[in-house]
Write a structure and sequence with these properties.
mainly beta; about 45% strand; six-stranded antiparallel sheet; about 150 residues; three-stranded antiparallel sheet; globular; 2 helices; Jelly Rolls
């Protein structure tokens, strides 16, 4: 990773990695600050593992761009199977969830605006076990701290 002034170049495979259960992501932007307009991650989701429960964010937006594999996104009441090259933008307040479909892991880029909300994913990885069911009370409390509600 190199920086020139405020410019930032993060090489392939570089950046801090965070587990989320059996999945993982690599943060491509720096440590999130309150003033960051966005944060970018590279996410690898395992097939056969359920995604997050349907939820909505009240204070931030997210967007996803599929690089490899297939991910089914449910946004509102619409389910869409998204393959390589598909973009999914989710405005604040819109219920959504996702799960990897197909026979192999999927990889996609995620964008959070404002950037400080990437901390939700970082903390979620500390709450979710790699194997076994999560503790719903801890997830609800974490989501609440980031102005996110289950639907």
């Amino acid at each position: 990773m190199t920086g020139i002034g405020r410019a930032r170049i993060v090489e392939a495979g570089a950046g801090p990695a965070f587990p989320i259960g059996a999945d993982r992501f690599v943060r491509k932007t720096g440590a999130p600050r309150r003033s960051d307009p966005f944060a970018v991650i590279e996410y690898v989701g395992q097939h056969g593992i359920p995604g997050p429960p349907p939820h909505r964010h009240r204070s931030f937006e997210e967007a996803w761009f599929i690089l490899d594999g297939e991910v089914e996104f449910t946004v509102g009441s619409r389910a869409t199977r998204a393959g390589s090259g598909t973009y999914v933008g989710i405005p604040r307040g819109v219920p959504h969830t996702f799960r990897v479909v197909g026979e192999r892991p999927a990889r996609w880029l995620g964008l959070f605006a404002p950037g400080r909300y990437v901390r939700l994913l970082e903390e979620l990885g500390r709450v979710l076990p790699a194997h076994g069911p999560p503790d719903p009370k801890r997830i609800v409390a974490l989501f609440r701290r980031y102005d996110t509600e289950l639907v």
